[in-house]
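Render this sequence as a predicted structure.
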Amino acid sequence: MTLGIRSLTRGIWTAVKETEAKDVVEKKSVLNILVAFAVATKHYLREEYSYEYDDLKDLISHLPKYATPASTTPLSAQTLERKKDKAFRLNAHDLETPSNIPIELSYYIAAYLSCVNARGLIAAPLMTPLQNCKI
């Protein structure tokens, strides 16, 4: 993951053209989102599903949350009821799904890459390696 984030960061910083001052701000913002992705992944793997951690809050406080189901309760702490036929049948509302902050951040990264591509700020041959980075 470190190599993928480093490669994507270097690619964005060098390959995306800057025509206005806002382009530099957008670049720096997406680089902060890449750092937040690593931190959010750490918390997600620890089953910590909140946006309110000190090392994460400052990196993503300016971003709106995607409309995804959210819970701060780990799945293992949630209870399930057995049905009459003694088999587990899960419905969509039986579980509270924890928010997946790394996935939300990957949406922002993909949206940024699509935006700079549509605005012509990156050459097509350079876009493909950025889209294929494994983070």
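Summary. The chain has five helices and no strands. The mean pLDDT is 80.
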